[in-house]
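tokens incoming
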């Protein structure tokens, strides 16, 4: 396999222990086939761990092994590539207060159960906000889930465990098995090579190494100016968010939805690059890797659209939202 550019996390980093139980293994080869970074090679009907240093802890092999012969465990804190990096000044209090007010307005008017999430993509070599870097790796979607539950997290490339997300968000290159679409066929998410190639070609991504870290915090505790705000909610809440801008423009929204790369492409990258709000229904990865409810979906809102969204929601909440929620067209029964 050609060398995979692991982003600005190069350094001493054998971080995962791969426990392979040879007594249980049936030699099916699925681990070698599915590992996006070619950590395994099948030798004499058994997987040989030929490149443990490439492992990003995505646990794909563990999940695909039909007999539970593999266990991937973290091996403690990793090398911090940004230990001596310049830190960004704290946000001005006025800006912090504005984000806290937006968060409260979204929660109050929509009735959200989750914190709206502030996303900042730290450009290459830019000063870093003061946000904790965890000891373990996680997927970008897991970072967003945890922020929606109140945590503030910054992930440089060597804290990301999803090769898809890190390459899409401009931190690393694309591993060959993902670039070719081979892995999506194995997962049976697309019918054939043609569909896989189309999906990969249509999928936007930021230039390699243009981003040094992803930052996700509750919007009310934003530590950096957000590029995008992600709202986690149900279909009705998404409807009002959609209507918040239509309130002013009367325009229909043209969302880009695929079921692939939900939080990284649809809820983050699209709003970030296009400056438009975009809905996402979730994707295989984010649903398989999180406890998002089946009815939860996501709206990515570029920061510059937030004043319009907040203002539109405030007007809608005067009459339209309460009337609709009161089911004014449902006949009242005598019991009521
Ligand atoms: S955890 Fe992921 S990267 Fe590591 S060996 Fe398994 S499939 Fe490969
Ligand atoms: S997927 Fe599991 S059973 Fe199949 S070769 Fe790998 S370790 Fe063995």
């Amino acid at each position: 396999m050609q060398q995979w550019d692991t982003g600005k996390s190069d350094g001493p980093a054998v971080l995962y222990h791969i426990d392979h139980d040879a007594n249980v293994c049936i030699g099916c080869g699925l681990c070698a086939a599915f590992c996006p970074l070619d950590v395994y090679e099948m030798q004499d009907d058994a997987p040989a761990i030929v490149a443990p240093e490439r492992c990003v802890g995505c646990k794909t092999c563990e999940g695909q092994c039909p007999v539970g012969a593999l266990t991937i465990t973290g091996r403690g804190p990793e090398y911090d590539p940004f230990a001596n990096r310049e830190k960004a000044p704290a946000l001005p209090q006025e800006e912090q207060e504005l984000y806290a007010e937006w968060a409260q307005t979204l929660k109050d008017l929509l009735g959200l159960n989750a914190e709206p999430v502030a996303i900042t993509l730290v450009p290459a070599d830019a000063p870093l906000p003061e946000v904790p870097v965890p000891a373990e790796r996680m997927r970008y979607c897991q970072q967003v889930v945890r922020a929606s539950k109140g945590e503030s997290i910054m992930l440089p490339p060597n804290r990301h465990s999803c090769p898809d997300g890190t390459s899409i968000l401009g931190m690393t290159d694309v591993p060959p098995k993902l670039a070719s679409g081979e892995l999506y066929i194995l997962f049976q998410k697309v019918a054939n090579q043609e569909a896989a190639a189309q999906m990969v070609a249509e999928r936007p991504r930021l230039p390699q190494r243009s981003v040094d870290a992803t930052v996700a915090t509750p919007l009310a505790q934003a530590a950096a100016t957000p590029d995008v705000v992600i709202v986690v909610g149900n279909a009705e809440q998404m409807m009002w968010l959609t209507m918040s801008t239509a309130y002013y423009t009367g325009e229909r929204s043209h969302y880009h939805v695929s079921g692939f790369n939900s939080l990284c492409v649809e809820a983050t990258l699209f709003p970030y690059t296009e400056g438009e709000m975009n809905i996402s229904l979730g994707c295989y990865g984010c649903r398989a890797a999180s406890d998002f409810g089946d009815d939860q979906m996501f709206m990515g809102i570029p920061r510059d659209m937030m004043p319009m969204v907040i203002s539109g929601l405030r007007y809608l909440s005067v009459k339209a939202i309460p009337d609709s929620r009161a089911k004014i067209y449902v006949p009242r029964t005598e019991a009521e």
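note: The radius of gyration is 22 Å.
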